Amino acid sequence: MEQIELEVASREVLGKKVKVLRRQGITPVHVFGHGIESMALQCATPELRRVLAEAGQSRLINLKLNGEKTPRTVMVREIQREPRTGKSVHVDFYQVQMAEKLKVEVPIVFVGESPALKLKENMLVHDLNKLEVECLPGNIPASVELDISSLTDADQEIRVEDINLGEGVTILTDPEQIVVKIVLRHIEKEEEVRGAAGEAVVRAEEATPPTEEESKD
Q1: Which distant-in-sequence residues (6+ apart) come within 8 Å of 62 by Cβ?
Q2: pLDDT tens, position by position, 132-143
Q3: DSSP string, 17-60
Q4: How confident is the model at residue 49 (pLDDT cuts 50, 70, 90)?
Q5: Spatial CB neighbours of 7, under 8 Å, sequence gap ≥ 6
Q6: Helix or strand run (H / E) with residue 105
Q7: What are phi and psi of 34, to 5 degrees?
Q8: What is the pLDDT of residues 73-96, one digit of tens each?
Q9: Strand partners, 106
């Protein structure tokens, strides 16, 4: 998997003055972690947006700080966004220790085609979009690919306990939790409701008293 890199620089502008940086296309960030001193940094906003979109909060990032020969391995811990626009205004990075296990949430991606969906009365409902896992930083999966081609009939489901991520990755999410299932749309009931509504309209029209002109006719 291609490594994700982000160039950052030391930041001297702090507090409310960081608004000036944002107007210049620069986003303030922080780096913290076990055994290291928290650092105030900054980076180009367009580059940061690209990295955030690619890495999410589960992939490792090589943070290249000016003056340091070796990149720092970090993960996104928190993103502060502007309420009205949703744009990131501050990002916290957590510097990981490659020999220290982490608890992270990994997105679930559905692959394959469910034969059950060939029938119009069936629909796919997913109750879970992420899995919480624990593993070493180097073993964190970018995503969990879940094949739904095994779902052939209504009422079939896939639970967390049916997912295997291999050695070195422990799933912390409740094993009984349903991830995805096939349910009936209840089309017949919907048609009955629409039919009943139509009959009600007809009865209402029949019950409407005639106008004077209609009476004369």
Answers
A1: 3, 4, 5, 6, 71, 72, 73
A2: 999 999 999 989
A3: GHHHHHHTTEEEEEEE-TTS--EEEEEEHHHHHHHHHHHTTTS-
A4: very high
A5: 43, 44, 47, 64, 66
A6: strand 102-111
A7: -65, 125
A8: 999 999 999 888 888 889 999 999
A9: 131
Q: Can you give the three-state secondary structure of 150-175, one letter per residue?
A: CCCCCCCEEEHHHCCCCCCEEECCCC
Entry pTM: 0.73
Tokens 């620069």 found at: 26
Helix, strand or coil, per DSSP, at residue 88? strand
Compute the residue count for the chain: 217
Identify the three-state secondary structure at position 125.
strand
Strands 102-111 and 144-147: parallel
